[in-house]
Every structure is written in structure tokens, then in C-alpha cells.
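We both want to read C-alpha cells more fluently, so let's practise on a single case. Would you supply a protein for us yourself, any chain you care to pick? Would you write everything just below, so we can both look at the same thing?
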Amino acid sequence: MAFEIEAALIGLSGVVVGGAISSITTLLIQRTERQRYSRERSWDLRREAYTEIIGSLDRARAIAEHIDEGYRDDAHGWDASEGNKKAQSQMIEHFHEARMAFHAKRLMLSGPFIGQYERMNRELGEASNPNLIPPESSEICSSVMRRIVPELEKLAQDELGMRP
């Protein structure tokens, strides 16, 4: 009878040890999956934020270049034109969209990206100087956008690991 009890205890301890190993393995797998999901979700959110901000800024850049071209061709005629007013309005709308996305998704953005974005806004503020005539303001705006939007795009691509 002692032998039977001993065999039963050995069998029971095997079940307990096997169950413990199985439980620990399951917990480790679940933890690893949660971490992987969190990393992937974080990457998706960052990609979405960068895409939205840079997309709006790129549209604003294209319009800023169009406005600057108009001033180079015929400064006085362009300044008073309906086309200029419409382009200015569209450019401001795209800047506004970028700003809204920037503030809404700021937690997902890297420090260098935030710094570059804020630098862009400071430099664009120089274009608002009331002592400048419209063609000069337009040139500053276009120049800043041509330089900084590609830099922001490169930062985002590097952070997301998407550089070719």
C-alpha cells in the first residue's frame, strides 16, 4: 500500500510540475505577444501621425511655391488676383490641418521631429513681418517650406525604419 501511495504522489507531483511549466510558458507567450502588439500599434500610430502632418505640410509647400511663382511672374497683378487669395486660403488651411494633427498626435512624435516642426514655425513667423512686402514674404515662406518639409520627411522615415 505504501508503494501505491508513493506512486500516486509521484504521479501527482508530475502533474503539478507539468501544469506549472505549462502555465509559466503560457504567461510568457502572452506577455511577449502583448509587447509585440504594443510595438506594432505604436509604430502604426507614429506612421499615421507623420503621414498626416507631412502630407498637409507638403500640400502647403506646393501651394507656397505656386504663390511665390505668381509673385515672380507679375507681383502687382498676382497680389490683387482672385487666384492668389484662393491659394493663400488653401495654404493656410493645410497649415491648420498640419497643426491640428501635430497637437493631437504629439505624444507619438519624436523629439527631433517636434524640434524641427517648431523651428519651421519660427522661421515661417519671419514671413509675417509687417515690414516685408508680399513678394518677400512669399519667398521666405516658400524657401522655408522647400527646405524643412523634406527634412521632416527624412526624420519620420528614419524613425519608422522606412529609408530606402
Remarks:
- The mean pLDDT is 88.
- The longest helix spans residues 2-79.
